[in-house]
Amino acid sequence: MSISPSKLSTPGAQSSGIVRTRAPGRINLIGEHVDYQGGVVMPAAVNRYIKAVAQANGRSELRLSSSQSHEDLVIPLEHRMPFSGDNSWANYAFGVVAKYRDAGYPVAGFDVRFESNLPLGAGLSSSAALETATALVIEALLGLNLPQTERALLCQSAEHEWAGVPCGIMDQLAVNAGVAGHALKIDCSTLEIDSAPLPANLSAVVVDSKVKHALADGEYAKRRADCEDATAFFDVEFLRDVTIGELDSAQFQLGERVYRRARHVITEMARVRDFAAALEASDTAAAGLLMAASHSSLRNDYEVSCQELDTLVDIAGELGAIGARMMGGGFGGSTVNLVETDGVSRFVEDIVARYREETGAEAEAVAVKLVGGARIENVE
Fold first, then answer.
1. Is residue 380, in this structure, part of any structural domain at all?
2. Are residues 229 and 137 in the same domain?
3. CATH value at residue 339
4. Is residue 174 a contact partner of residue 45, using CB atoms and an 8 Å limit?
5. What average pLDDT score do residues 71-84 get?
6. How far apart are CA 9 and CA 376, in angstroms?
7. Which of 188, 80, 93, 191 is nearest to 135 (CA)?
8. Which of 6, 251, 341, 343 holds its CA 20 to 30 A away from the CA of 101?
9. Of the residues 196, 230, 265, which one is the last residue of a structural domain?
10. pTM (two decimals)
11. Cα(237)–Cα(230) distance, integer angstroms
12. Which is more confident, 29 or 329?
């Protein structure tokens, strides 16, 4: 798809020019599978992006093109049904268009092409990045500037209704609100956001296992349903309103599986609080132990890890990482590792080599920088 230059747009008016946006991926230092239970999480935007270039086309249709797709998709703006099969990726983009349309914004047809160096299925939230890059295209073309939280909620709603993934709000908020050099402390109940600097002597390394086990999205939905069974039992909106003592007292009534799912969520919320305090106190040893406990809970209580992720976490510990754990929905994807900055290059090389020696498989490790959130790069 080619997009030709056009005149500059007038601020506040619909643009007929070329619009360029970019949205980062995100890591999550700690606080996994608690966002949809109103917990506090500690993600950060990172320097891997989905970029979009777009232009109004004067027709009542959307034309989607991607560097990772073999053909363009042409979709009427009034389309109402999610896509399946090879075209299912379009749900993350067109779903956002549909949510702006249904919210009453005068969305007109446009052509858009996406380019990405953000790996799919690696736990870096490529879905929220694609959604947000699309949302910013719409806003740039319409001369809008929605608050970050409103934009994130529209994107989350699109993922729920079009992609069929009942995600929490963490990914969309992190992608929109990232602060360079900082993790974010996001309260997923109140949507309040604070920033917390990563100590200068620490760096984040993401290790992609290159594994994506089948049925991950369905298993995610099952975990969420288990948590909803627990909240129904306690007659609360979120598990953040349940103490570990109350949970333990109800273990028999809940049943073992629901009990363990809820135990992960409640204990993980406590770990986030303690992790934030450890970073503030520069207590890296305590922070690392909390990351290890998070991984153990995700593996044993929430059962969303896998052998590949467990192996990577074990190797990271043997190589001297401050902390390591699985990240994202689970069943594959990546680990997040905190490493002494002066040892990052050696760690990146060694963990890939060790993983290859132990498993015969290839992983990819990359040090990431914590960056600012999604933005409109320019309107030509």
1. no
2. no
3. 3.30.70.890
4. yes
5. 94
6. 13
7. 93
8. 6
9. 196
10. 0.89
11. 10
12. 29
Does any domain span residue 5? no
Q: In whole angstroms, what is the distance from residue 33 CA to residue 341 CA?
A: 28
- Where helices occur in 12-125 by DSSP H, the ranges are 90-102
Among 171, 208, 226, 301, which one carries the catalytic annotation?
171
User: From the CB of residue 51, how many other CB atoms can be counted at a distance below 10 Å?
Assistant: 18
Nearest to 194 by CA among 206, 185, 207: 185
Question: How many angstroms separate the CA atoms of 134 and 289, rounded?
Answer: 38
Check whether residue 306 and residue 359 sit in a common domain.
Answer: yes
Q: What is the CATH number of the domain that holds 131?
A: 3.30.230.10
Q: Is residue 14 part of a domain?
A: no
> Do 232 and 191 have their domain in common?
no
Enclosing domain of residue 262: 199-368
SS3 string, 218-275, reads HHHHHHHHHHHHHHHHHCCCCHHHCCHHHHHHCHHHHCHHHHHHHHHHHHHHHHHHHH
Residue 7 lies in a domain: no
Examine the domain organization and report whether 215 and 160 are in the same domain.
no
Please provide residue 65's backbone torsions phi and psi, each rounded to the nearest 5 degrees: -140, 145
Enter the tokens of residue 137: 């295209």
Which of residues 137, 165, 196 is at a domain's end? 196
Give me the percent of the chain exceeding a pLDDT of 90.
83
Q: Which pLDDT band holds residue 215 (cuts at 50, 70, 90)?
A: very low
Tally of structural domains, the chain: 2
- Strand, coil or helix: 159: helix
Tokens encoding 87: 């075209």
Q: Note if 171 is an active site residue.
A: yes
| Burial profile 20-42: b = 16 or more Cβ within 10 angstroms, e = fewer | bbbbbbbbbbbbbbbbbbbbbbb
Query: How is residue 239 annotated by DSSP?
Result: G
Separation between Cα atoms, residue 64 and residue 73, nearest integer Å? 5
Residues 183 and 118 in one domain: yes
Considering Cα of 150, then 154, then 157, then 159, what sign does the dihedral take?
A: negative
Q: How many CB atoms lie within 10 A of CB 256?
A: 9
CA atoms of 344 and 356, how far apart (whole Å): 19
